[in-house]
Every structure is written in C-alpha cells, then in structure tokens.
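Sharing in case it's useful to others searching the archive later.

Someone asked me privately for the predicted structure of S-adenosyl-L-methionine-dependent methyltransferase, so I'm posting the question and my answer publicly. Question first, with the sequence:
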Amino acid sequence: MGSVSLKIGDGTARFKRASMCSSAVNFLMLFSVVTTNLFALYAFSYRPTTGDHHKNFSLISEKVSLILREIESSQKKLARMEKELLGYETIDLSRPNIANELREFLNHHQLPLGKDSRTGITEMVASVGHSCEKSVDLLSQFMSYKVNGLCPDDWSLGQKLILQGCEPLPRRRCFAKTIPKVGLQSFPDSLWKNVSEKIYSWSGLGCKNLACLNSKKLNRDCAGCFDIVKGYETQRYIKARSKNDFLIDDVLAMGSGGIRIGFDIDSGSGTFAARMAERNVTVVTATLNVDAPFSEFIAARGLFPLYFSLDHRFPFYDNVFDLVHAANGLDVGGRPEKLEFLMFDIDRVLRAGGLFWLDNFYCSTDDKKRALTRLIERFGYKKLKWVVGEKINGSGKSEVYLSAVLQKPVRV
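And my answer, the predicted structure tokens:
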C-alpha cells in the first residue's frame, strides 16, 4: 500500500491509497519527463544550415509549443487517471436525469490545507456508495426535493437503495418528516410497555398497526415479536422452550472480564437489548425497517437502533465489543463468501476473550450446517456451549437449529 500525505505543522496526516494508482501515476510521470527532455534536447541542439535566424527562431518556437502541449496533455491524463483510480467519477454527473442536489453533493471539495505536496491532489470526494451507480435513476429521485423544505415521505425508497448496495446514501438538505413522540415511557419502564401506535411511521408498510404485525411471521426471528406485554417476548432469554434456547444469565456468567457492551445482529424488536439493559449491559441493535417499523419501535423502548444493512462494514473500531449476538440475520442466502466477509467483520469488532452468541440459527441443510461449522472452526474460537437441536415447524416438519456460545481467542 502507498500513502498520500498532508503536511500539518510538524506532523503528517496520511490517507491510504492503492499501489496500483501510485504505480500508474509514477509510470506516466516518468514517461512525460523523458518525452519532454527528448523534445527539449532536440529543439535546442538543432542547427539550421541556411543561417536563417528567423526560420531558426520559428522552428524553436514550434518545438517549445509542442513540448508545452505535450506537458498539458500529460497533466490531463494524470488527472483523469487519478480520478478514475481513486473513484472520483464513479457517477456520471453530466447525465440529463441527474438531480441538481445530487450534483451539488457529489461536487469535489478542495482539501482544507490546499494542494498535497506529494501527489498534487487538491480535492476530496463525497461519501456515497459505489453501487449507487447501478441505481442512479432511483438515487436521483431520492435527491429530488426542495432545498430547506420538507423531505418527501420516501424512507422506503432510501431503504430500497440501501438494500441494492447504495450505502451510504448521500446527505440531503431537507427536513425529515416529524412525528410527535407522545406518551413515551421513562427508562426502564419503557422496556416492556407499549405506546401509542401514532408515534410510528406506517407509510410504505402493509400493516398499519401493531395487532397486524403480531398476527404475522415477519421473519424467522420475529413472530409476534411486537407484543412485549403478553406475548412470548416477555419470556425470551429467561425461560427456555427448547434446549437451543440459552438463558441470558447463564451466558453472561461465561464472559471473561465481564460483559459491558454488546452488538446484536438480530431481526427482532429489541428484546435481546432490553434483557441486557436490565442487567446494565449496553447493546446496539442492527436494524432495517423491512415490513415493520423496527427502528422506531426499538428506540421507543429506550434502546439503541443502528440503521444499516449487514452488507455494510460495521461502523465500529476493532476489538470494542464484549459480546456479539446473532440469530438468523447471519443468513446471507447460502453464499459462503458473503458469510466469510460477515464473520470476519464480527471477529474484528469482538474483543479477545469476548463472546459470540449464535442463537437458534436455522440450518436448512446438512451442507449448510457443515459449512458454518467449518467456518467457525477456522477462527479458533473456544466452544463454551454448542447445541444442535430439532424443532417442529408450523407444518409439522422437523427443522435443525444450531445454538452456540463461542469465545474469541487471543491472537499474536
């Protein structure tokens, strides 16, 4: 890897960049210098035989002009190559259907300290997902709004872009729709009390109330999960229905050095985080509002929802969590490479000695179970608890589930 440096006082700030870019730019610069010197040598060593000084001066002027044009062309090639290799021009802003606000957001910004002395780079690029280029029409629609006005009620459009890999979304200069949060309970009463359904945004959703949500199986980990007063959610993690259901106090007792902060990769309504909060453990819950207002519901319980897809690199520093809890949100459609990327990111944010709790992961086939088992074994985690069990589904068929508590090793 190479680096881009910015001189700041007596220190240096560095931004990593690809060696491919450095090699290509260095080669083009070397070619430009050699070509320029050859032209200069030819121009100034040339001796006319006629003695016509006017003709000689014109010839030198022509050669100098040629050299200058060559330098200008090389500089343009350098700038274009740097922009292409660094991703400066992923989205074609010259297209006629691009929203003006998208152009404004993606316009290049000058480096705060001016031109970089080593590379000559003078601009910064806006943060927007690389895959947004594939959905540029939807992205332009998302960025079509009245500046300083109310944002369109289009959260579902933004989520569609996220699920298509357009993440992060560009910022917008409009005010999001405000929904009065009336009747919120104080913590910790908020963990297990419902509030008015009017505080949630139901636009873009099939259900328009909690009763409708609780009548459906929204995903494998959320069947009636919005009933936090009388439903099974009140028993989760403190009362087992099968041998695959681990009790939360038992798992916390396995934690080396104590469990203080955790990350929940679950597709539920925040009950895991609620149980942890009762035990003075802070948990961040990854959410998306797929078929239900998960983020708003979790926040109404006084918990911390983090809105992003699992294809997004976790926005946390290395080795920070004492515990990572994952259920069937770990399922990435049977693609082993995707699961590897996800598992490596889980490992990155989990501290040495921390716990990875795999909770009732559905093994649809024996091959899937073996592939997951082999992947886990590659990480060298200590198996504190490992249970493979069967459950009968609604149609009377037996399904295999894996639950495990694994401890991350110290690596040197």
